[in-house]
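Archive entry: two folds, one per protein. Generate the first.
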Amino acid sequence: MSNALLKVTGLKKAYGAIQAVGGVSFEVMPGEIFGVIGPNGSGKTTMFNSVLGQITPNEGSIELNGQNITGLSPLELSRRGVGRTFQTLQVFGKMTVRDNLIVAAQEHKGSMFSRMFAPGDSGLGDKADALIDQFRIRHVADKLAGTLSYGQQKLVDIAMAFMAEPDLVLLDEPCAGVNPSLVGGISSLLKELNQNPKFGRKSSFVVIEHNMDFVMDLCHRIMVMVEGKVMAIGTPAEIRANKEVLDAYLGN
């Protein structure tokens, strides 16, 4: 029996005659940072959204901690311990940074009745403050999120994904649009969250990203997708040395 945190087996998704994902299988182990790379149109986003319940696959299974989660809604997956970020920012621009973090976790905080009689921050203020400190955004905690730079909003967006203490976080292009000077900071922060967790468990990530230096530096293993299929899975060193991958993708 597999000890995988996430296990995807034979995942397929077609749109008419177009096979966007053609039988993808992989595992993510507890505490692992797993990268997904591939050229545009390789099926990365379709695979990602199938795992996250945004779309329903035609075939295949998805397991989280040994439980079948195939076809569950994004909300149900969130309640089972799956967090995510999107390519586009999902922050609430007219709310403070601190309130953004609190709102991100409120749906996980008991019943509607219990939340009605909870403190104004639903008892989540201390957790929000801890993440604000860990993400080094204390100086903007009381500012409206919409007034921050894009890079700062990206940090808030990532922090929001951790408010519910997820077992697994799927990060969709965390470096997209970010000033190159901040990319290293995001990498260091994710390594810190992975290696020195402050919220009860070692964090595991699946990362889709086009920035090869970022992926190679951050991830323990990397999956290369081309034309909806898995070309290779291996360590960064193995992927760099794979001639088929170099010819199909990295060489370009």
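Generate the second and append.
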Amino acid sequence: MTEINMPLSKNVERVGHLDIPGGGQIVVDGRYVYVGHMKPPYGTTIIDVSDPANPSIVSQIMLDDNYSHTHKVRVVGDLMYTNVEQYNRHFLRQADKLPVLRKRLEESLGRPPTSAETAVEADIDEADLPELDAALERGYNAGGFKIYDVSDKAKPQLLSYTETFGFGVHRFDVDENYAYISTEMDGYIGNILVVYDIHDPSKPVEISRWHMPGQHLVAGEIPTWKGYKNRLHHAMRVGDELWAAVWHGGFRILDVSDITNIKLLGEHNYHPPFPEPTHTVLPLSQIIDGRRIAVVVDEEHDHTPGQLHAFMWIFDVTDFDNIQALSAFDVSERDSPWSRAPGRFGAHQFREKMDSTLVYATWFSGGLRIVDVADPIKPKEVAYYIPEPYPDQDSPQSNDCDVDDKGLVYLIDRNRGLDILQVTL
């Protein structure tokens, strides 16, 4: 047990808690909260929060197997959207290289390679080979997204299941008319944007795509990066624009005034030298001192000592041809008792709605950080809350948050637990 010798909150009080499996995304809509879970067989949970001190589960969608997860969720009116993505995809994709590798080893050795020899050549643990071989034999073709009718929260009804390709769908945005899906597609490397018309939610229709030059392999494009480093993480719609985080490619701003003909408006890439990939980008809803301001957050992965942790950026995006970094906000390792415990520490995500200058950001073992960017040169942390981990967890892993119309914050942990918080500014 970590000895706690620092405050775990400032201007935030916990008013409710629910012990549920860890979540990838949380969305609040009226008196209900929707959680997309990280690990199968848990799919999506709908929670009644009309009494924030006593949240209660209304319904849970369970998955049919352990091969997919539906860790992202969106709600528009009575429609709920979830992704379908291969679970543990980064590990399992290592199986793709095994057939070629084994053939090359057999030609070199003059005999079939042993498991130990294969593992050394593939740079994996020998104990992982059976699971990778099983995944290779099984294949994966379940990726896509689902739309549910949740007019009756106790009985969600599946309206459609649109299959895509490869890993399937990671993150996405939706509105009353379209779904902006980040997914792998046949013939491309890495996730691209695919837009679907959802006027008939029982039959989504693809109407356009967008990708970065170099992703469309079957069209003869050649990426200037290695592997899957540059790809669409997800794109968020703001008016006639989409704000797209493209991982180690930084971010892009897209013109969707003609949704069937998406065009690039602006781009900015700060990789390298910054090591962690771009996760989310959104502009503020208001102009500050005549400037348009955008907030960007990178996602922390396995931390290499000596490298920077993931943090939050503030950009001047007034001129798309001359995007300028104004400042950054970071959390010191000294500001969390679990910063060096097993698990991630740095930034991950912020609430994907910019209706004020307050940014609600999740910082893995650094918890929830509330940052005022009214002065974009000097972002100021005004509140924070670090959950204590469960006894069977090494550290909290705050993954996502949302805020209701009363100002309550809903904070989901990647591994376990939902906190309902009151900001006392």
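Annotation attached to the second fold: The chain has four helices and 30 strands. Residues 98-109 form the longest helix (12 residues).
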